[in-house]
């Protein structure tokens, strides 16, 4: 069996187009332009790349992008003061504080200082609680993008067995909640799970978000399973160059899975598209 390739880039392009149409409609009919504020503390190279591309996409769909780059030694009180200023600013509809934060900053305190209605990452404890209780919430962007692709490729998800590998607040836990809300039977596994291949072998859907390169082996999969690979890992090649790989051994998995996301070009592009969709939704909730 050769898996269908789930083209996240093409998916994201369609979603971005729809976001751009919404933005243009808001401008023309209401004179409103949604705004997204992104806060980066420190110089983490990967975060700098993510923040730059978030800013670019925001402008491309016609929204206002506000970027705040703060030094690594920023005091917690200074960061909290900026968040309060953004909470009160009516031109800012979405606030994203790029994670990870430098060690001296309390991540939970900072995230929970964001107005939940502007929490386009869906990380605030109120949004996490709403999602966990099956209520309308701002949903974290990566799991939301994964769910959209799963719905497209699997149709109705009810009754399917999903194994989510990874238990982070950003991906694993909200992904499991979303799949439960779709009436999947959900197993949350992680790097310490015993007999992981046995769990994976029973899964109709595998979402790998464990952050370890090529961790999930092709032979673990059930024939025809749908595989969503959230991992983005840079590995050294024998010739001194580096290569981006996911958490799944793609080359082996593609001969067994029914459908699979590539890395790069799978989940990644959907995350930003969902962030912008969340920002438009946040803007509409304020105004309508
Ligand atoms: N760091 C890695 N992924 C994310 C994300 O989705 N949002 C934020 N704020 N930080 C991240």
TrEMBL record:
Residues 140-284 form the Tetrahydrofolate dehydrogenase/cyclohydrolase NAD(P)-binding domain. PROSITE patterns: THF_DHG_CYH_1, THF_DHG_CYH_2. It comes from the Bacteria. Pathway: One-carbon metabolism; tetrahydrofolate interconversion. Its EC number is 1.5.1.5, 3.5.4.9. It catalyses: (6R)-5,10-methenyltetrahydrofolate + H2O = (6R)-10-formyltetrahydrofolate + H(+); (6R)-5,10-methylene-5,6,7,8-tetrahydrofolate + NADP(+) = (6R)-5,10-methenyltetrahydrofolate + NADPH. One of its GO terms (molecular function) is methylenetetrahydrofolate dehydrogenase (NADP+) activity. NADP(+) binds at residues 166-168, 232. InterPro entries: Aminoacid_DH-like_N_sf (IPR046346), NAD(P)-bd_dom_sf (IPR036291), THF_DH/CycHdrlase (IPR000672), THF_DH/CycHdrlase_cat_dom (IPR020630), THF_DH/CycHdrlase_CS (IPR020867), THF_DH/CycHdrlase_NAD-bd_dom (IPR020631). One of its GO terms (cellular component) is cytosol. GO terms for biological process: L-histidine biosynthetic process; methionine biosynthetic process; purine nucleotide biosynthetic process; tetrahydrofolate interconversion. Residues 6-121 form the Tetrahydrofolate dehydrogenase/cyclohydrolase catalytic domain. Keywords: Amino-acid biosynthesis, Histidine biosynthesis, Hydrolase, Methionine biosynthesis, Multifunctional enzyme, NADP, One-carbon metabolism, Oxidoreductase, Purine biosynthesis. CDD domains: NAD_bind_m-THF_DH_Cyclohyd. Homodimer. Belongs to the tetrahydrofolate dehydrogenase/cyclohydrolase family. Catalyzes the oxidation of 5,10-methylenetetrahydrofolate to 5,10-methenyltetrahydrofolate and then the hydrolysis of 5,10-methenyltetrahydrofolate to 10-formyltetrahydrofolate. NCBIfam families: PRK10792.1, PRK14186.1, PRK14188.1. This is Bifunctional protein FolD. It comes from Marinobacter panjinensis. The gene is folD.
């Amino acid at each position: 069996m050769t898996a269908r390739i789930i083209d996240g880039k093409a998916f994201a392009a369609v979603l971005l187009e729809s976001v751009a149409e919404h933005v243009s409609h808001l401008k023309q009919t209401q004179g409103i332009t949604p705004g997204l504020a992104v806060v980066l503390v420190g110089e983490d190279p990967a975060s700098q790349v993510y923040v730059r591309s978030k800013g670019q996409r925001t402008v491309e769909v016609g929204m206002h992008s506000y970027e705040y780059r703060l030094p690594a030694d920023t005091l917690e009180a200074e960061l909290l003061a900026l968040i309060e200023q953004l909470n009160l600013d009516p031109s800012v509809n979405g606030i994203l504080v790029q994670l990870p934060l430098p060690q001296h900053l309390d991540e939970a305190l900072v995230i929970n200082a964001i107005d939940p209605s502007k929490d386009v990452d869906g990380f605030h404890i109120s949004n996490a609680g709403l999602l966990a209780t099956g209520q309308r919430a701002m949903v974290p962007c990566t799991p939301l993008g994964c769910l959209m692709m799963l719905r497209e490729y699997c149709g109705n998800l009810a009754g399917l067995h999903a194994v989510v590998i990874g238990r982070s607040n950003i991906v694993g836990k909200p992904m499991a909640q979303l799949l439960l809300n779709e009436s999947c039977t959900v197993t949350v596994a992680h790097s310490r799970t015993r007999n992981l291949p046995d769990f994976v072998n029973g899964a109709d859907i595998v979402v790998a978000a464990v952050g370890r390169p090529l961790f999930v082996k092709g032979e673990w999969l059930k024939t025809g399973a749908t595989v969503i690979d959230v991992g983005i890992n840079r590995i050294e090649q024998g010739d001194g160059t580096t290569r981006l790989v996911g958490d799944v051994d793609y080359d082996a998995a593609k001969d067994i899975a029914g459908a699979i996301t590539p890395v790069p070009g799978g989940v990644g592009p959907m995350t930003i598209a969902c962030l912008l969709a969340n920002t438009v939704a946040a803007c509409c909730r304020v105004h309508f």
